[in-house]
Amino acid sequence: MRVLLQRVSRAEVRVNGRVTGRIGTGFCLLVGFTHTDGDAQLAWMADKVIGLRLFGDSEGKMNLALSDVQGALLVVSQFTLYGDAQKGRRPSFIDAARPEVAEALYERFVAMLRERGVTVETGEFGAMMEVDLVNDGPVTLWLER
After folding, report:
1. Which of 40, 55, 44 is closest to 6 using CA atoms?
2. Cα–Cα dist 4/143, whole Å
3. Distance of CA 80 to the CA centre of its chain
4. Cis peptide before 138 (omega within 30 of 0)
5. Is 41 a catalytic residue?
6. Given 27, 55, 79, 109, which residue is catalytic?
7. Is residue 96 very low, low, confident or very high in pLDDT (cuts 50, 70, 90)?
8. Which residues of 94-113 are buried (b: 16+ CB within 10 A; e: fewer)?
9. I need a surface site. Which of 19, 104, 128, 136 has the fewest CB within 10 A?
10. What is the model's pLDDT at position 18?
11. 137 vs 52, 109, 134, CA distance in Å?
12. Residue 97: DSSP 8-state
């Protein structure tokens, strides 16, 4: 499982001009899955994302977690995180989970985040999406499990 996490002051995702998810302060997560992912990877990532202390405290030090700032999550499926462009000019996506597997993993991951008490907005799995965000910092992390 791979996640590109961006700390944002606002973010939204649209499908065919329709907003499917919108948040203020929080994290925008681009999420990709591979063939071997399961509940262990999903649970670890959910706990990691929620527990990361990436927001500034009164002294400006990154010391506050999502819950400390009443933040939310915008979770967008992104199979291209498993793109391999080491050879040639066209990336290979052989390591990305097939759509029928990835969609179930995506839905389970979103459910796990919500079970942990976080507000979660989403894109639409498999759709062509437009993601608009204001990166806060910028703070961007690559997480993998």
Report:
1. 55
2. 6
3. 13
4. yes
5. no
6. 79
7. very high
8. ebbbeeeebeebbebbbebb
9. 128
10. 97
11. 15, 26, 9
12. P
pLDDT band at 99 (very low <50, low <70, confident <90, very high): very high
- What confidence tier does 85 reach under pLDDT thresholds 50, 70, 90? very high
**Best CA proximity match to 99, nearest among 14, 33, 21, 6:** 33
Q: Is 6 one of the catalytic residues?
A: no
Tokens 């290979």 correspond to 92
Q: Is 79 a catalytic residue?
A: yes
Tokens at residue 129, please?
Answer: 């999406």
**pLDDT tens per residue, range 118-128:** 999 999 999 99
CATH topology of domain 2-144: D-tyrosyl-trna(Tyr) Deacylase; Chain: A; (3.50.80)
Taking only the tens place, the pLDDT of each residue in 1-20 is 999 999 999 999 999 999 99
Q: Which of 6, 34, 41, 78 is catalytic?
A: 78
Domain boundaries in the chain?
A: 2-144
Q: What's this model's pTM, rounded to 2 decimal places?
A: 0.96
Backbone Cα Rg of the chain: 15
80, 86, 109, 125: which one is catalytic? 80
3-state SS assignment for residue 102: helix
